[in-house]
Amino acid sequence: MLLQVLNTAGIAVFAASGAVLGVRKDFDLWGILTVGVLTGVGGGILRDVLLGITPPASIDNWTPICTAAISSLVVFFFHPAFSELRRMILVLDAFGMGLFATTGAGVALDVGASAFAAVLVGMLTAIGGGILRDVLANEIPLLLQPADLYAIPALLGSALFVTGERLAPQWHAWWVVAAVILATGLRLLGLAFHWTLPTAPTRTWPRRWTR
């Protein structure tokens, strides 16, 4: 039940981040709804395709798409209340990422996936919707931007959840909360303190001697 609630919350938050980006890009109502809904359910669809769940839960019932659509409509009508749309996108995306990393890993475990597969599915669930959102809006995906920690927090959050479930499944609710806090918190801290992963060195390799 807790994972279902968090999954719905993640859909709403991710959809809001997509809708906010649509507003910033001056999309019309249909465009905002489209990018919002696809952002909200994209990660879940990728998760279910990888796990062989057909049809994907996001399109098998009305709840996920309606949740994403309502969230997008709220942003459409009330976005003037947000003074900094770019910052709002990043904050919403961080929460959605943390929620989906945990729920994606949980669904994978529920269908019998291995611990390793569950961690990877959790990470891919977390980043799938954001990648789709950025591609639709012609933005460089946050996953690929060198100034941001994105996939690493999702990977660590899903890994913590899976490890906890294997070691002490009776503390399920606590592992859910801890994983969401870890993934979201690490993402927000990375944004606040500009934590980055190393990039390739710029030193030019010496040319090979040629005859």
From TrEMBL:
<feature type="transmembrane region" description="Helical">
    <location>
        <begin position="62"/>
        <end position="82"/>
    </location>
</feature>
<dbReference type="Pfam" id="PF03458">
    <property type="entry name" value="Gly_transporter"/>
</dbReference>
<protein>
    <submittedName>
        <fullName>Trimeric intracellular cation channel family protein</fullName>
    </submittedName>
</protein>
<dbReference type="GO" id="GO:0005886">
    <property type="term" value="C:plasma membrane"/>
</dbReference>
<keyword id="KW-0812">Transmembrane</keyword>
<feature type="transmembrane region" description="Helical">
    <location>
        <begin position="115"/>
        <end position="136"/>
    </location>
</feature>
<feature type="domain" description="Glycine transporter">
    <location>
        <begin position="91"/>
        <end position="163"/>
    </location>
</feature>
<feature type="transmembrane region" description="Helical">
    <location>
        <begin position="6"/>
        <end position="23"/>
    </location>
</feature>
<keyword id="KW-1133">Transmembrane helix</keyword>
<feature type="transmembrane region" description="Helical">
    <location>
        <begin position="89"/>
        <end position="109"/>
    </location>
</feature>
<keyword id="KW-0472">Membrane</keyword>
<feature type="transmembrane region" description="Helical">
    <location>
        <begin position="148"/>
        <end position="168"/>
    </location>
</feature>
<dbReference type="InterPro" id="IPR005115">
    <property type="entry name" value="Gly_transporter"/>
</dbReference>
<keyword id="KW-1003">Cell membrane</keyword>
<feature type="transmembrane region" description="Helical">
    <location>
        <begin position="30"/>
        <end position="50"/>
    </location>
</feature>
<comment type="similarity">
    <text>Belongs to the UPF0126 family.</text>
</comment>
<feature type="transmembrane region" description="Helical">
    <location>
        <begin position="174"/>
        <end position="197"/>
    </location>
</feature>
<feature type="domain" description="Glycine transporter">
    <location>
        <begin position="5"/>
        <end position="79"/>
    </location>
</feature>
